[in-house]
Amino acid sequence: MFQIVFNEISAAELSKLGTLEQLELLDEFQVGKTDLENLSGERFGKIERAGTVLYRFRAKEYRFYFEVKENSVIVHRVLHRGTFSDFLFRSKMPLAEDEALADSKHFWKLIDEGRNAKRM
Fold first, then answer.
1. Strands 72-80, 3-6: parallel, antiparallel or unpaired by DSSP?
2. Among 33, 41, 51, 80, which one is least packed by beta carbons within 10 Å?
3. Structural domains for the chain
4. How many angstroms separate the Cα of 116 from the Cα of each of 6, 23, 45, 119?
5. CA–CA gap between residue 41 and residue 96 (Å, rounded)
6. Residues paired with 37 in a beta bridge
7. Model pLDDT for residues 60-104, shown as the tens digit of each residue
């Protein structure tokens, strides 16, 4: 298992949820090396652009977007699948979800905001 680190933005997104929902999501969000080596596409996905690798984890109605550095999972964003931002990512997708996100400038802007946010 990796240590999971949330930045200010992803922590704030998660804190908007009720306590019970937060606990349920965090209980599901467990990432091991074997998960990342055997991406199913269902729970875990991989998004790449210009040499940057980002992973996606689905838990209930939420998507955790994160990267792995050393022995840590750094969560950049936690988005509800029905949010406006998440809808924009998926609304015009003839490709698979992760492929479409890899080409979305709006998505990478959200990720960069998370990447540059202070870690908690």
1. parallel
2. 51
3. 3-116 (3.30.2310.20)
4. 12, 26, 22, 9
5. 9
6. none
7. 889 999 999 988 999 999 988 876 555 555 555 444 566 666 666
